[in-house]
Amino acid sequence: MEVIIFIIVCLLIALLCRVLYMKKRIEKLESQLHDQKEEADRCIKQLINNINEDISAGELLLIKCFRDLFACSVFSNTAVYYHLKYDEKNRIKEIDFFVVSPKGLYAIESKMWKGTTYIHKDSCPDIFKTKTFKSFGIEKNGKVRVYNAKYGESANEIRLNSYRNPVEQIREYSRDMKNLLNVPMVKSIVIFHVAEEFDVQYDYKAFTIAQIDSYTSILTDACIKEFFMQQPDVFFDYNWVNDYIENNLHYKSKMCNSNYEQEPYSSLSKL
C-alpha cells in the first residue's frame, strides 16, 4: 500500500512539475509575442516617420507587398510611385500607386474598408434597389457597382458607407494618365485588403481576382504576386515615362530596384 501511495505522490509531483514547466513556457511565448508586436509597431512608426506623411494601414500593407515583389524579382526594372499627383483641367488629382514596368503601366487604388464590401457586375441585387443604395456606388456606364455596408446585431440593421466607387475612380485616373502620357493603355487596379473585419464579395462570393474588362481588375491583397506574375511583358519603353513623371509631376516616394532594400522600405521586412 505504501508503495502505491509513493508512486501516486511521485506521479502527482511529476505532473505538477510538468504544469509549472508549461506555465513558464506559455509565459515566455506570451512575452516573445508581446516583444514582436512592440517591434512591429516600432517599425510601422519608423516607416511612417521616414516617409514623413500620414499613411493608411492599407497603403502600408500594399507597400510591403510591392517590396516583396521587388525581392522575388517579379518587379524587375520597375518603379512604383506613391501618391502621384497630376493636374487635370486645373484640378489636382492623386493616385495611390502608379506602377511603371515592362509589363505595362498600372494605376492602383488601395481600399481597406471595414464591414462587408459588395461588388456586382451588370446586375444589382434587390437589397440595393432602395433609394439609399441606388444613389451610391454606380459606375458611370452602369456595369460595375460597389457597396460597403456595416451590419448591426441583426441583418436588418445596415449602415451604408457612402464612399466613392473605387472602380469609377481608378478608371478616371487611368484615362487621365493615358491622355497625359499619350500611351495606348494605362491599366486600372483596385486592391481590397481582406481580414477578419474587412470582407469583400464579388456577386456574393469570396474571390481573389476579378477581371472586369481588358484594362480593369479588382484584386484582394492575397493574390497581388499571382496577378503580376500572370501579366505578360509588353516590351514597353518605360524609361521616358519615369523621366516624365520625375520632371513634371509630384509624388511622395518612389520604390525601385535600387532602393527597395534601403530605408524606409527595409523596415517592412520586420513586419
Global structural class: alpha/beta
* Alpha-carbon distance between the two ends: 59 Å
Q: Shape, please?
A: elongated
CA radius of gyration is 25 Å
What integer is the average pLDDT?
Answer: 78
Helix and strand succession?
HHEEEEHEEHEEEEHHE
Query: How are the strands ordered across the major sheet?
Result: 9-10-7-3-2-1-11
Largest sheet: 7 strands, mixed
Weakly predicted, low-confidence segments: 126-140
The helix fraction, in percent, is 25-40%
The count of domains is: 2
Strand content: 25-35%
Please tally the β strands and state the result.
11
Number of helices: 6
User: What oligomeric assembly is this protein in?
Assistant: single chain
List keywords for this structure.
7-stranded mixed β-sheet, 11 strands, alpha/beta, elongated, 2 domains, 4-stranded mixed β-sheet, 6 helices, 271 residues
Structure in a nutshell:
The chain is α/β, with parallel strands linked by helices. The chain has six helices and eleven strands.
Walk me through this protein's architecture.
- With 271 residues, this protein is α/β, with parallel strands linked by helices.
- The chain folds into 2 domains: 52 residues; 215 residues, no CATH class.
- It has 6 helices and 11 strands.
- It has a 7-stranded mixed beta sheet with strand order 9-10-7-3-2-1-11, with helices on both faces. A 4-stranded mixed beta sheet has the order 6-5-4-8, with helices on one face.
- The longest helix has 50 residues.
- The radius of gyration is 25 Å and the shape is elongated.
- The relative contact order is 0.16.
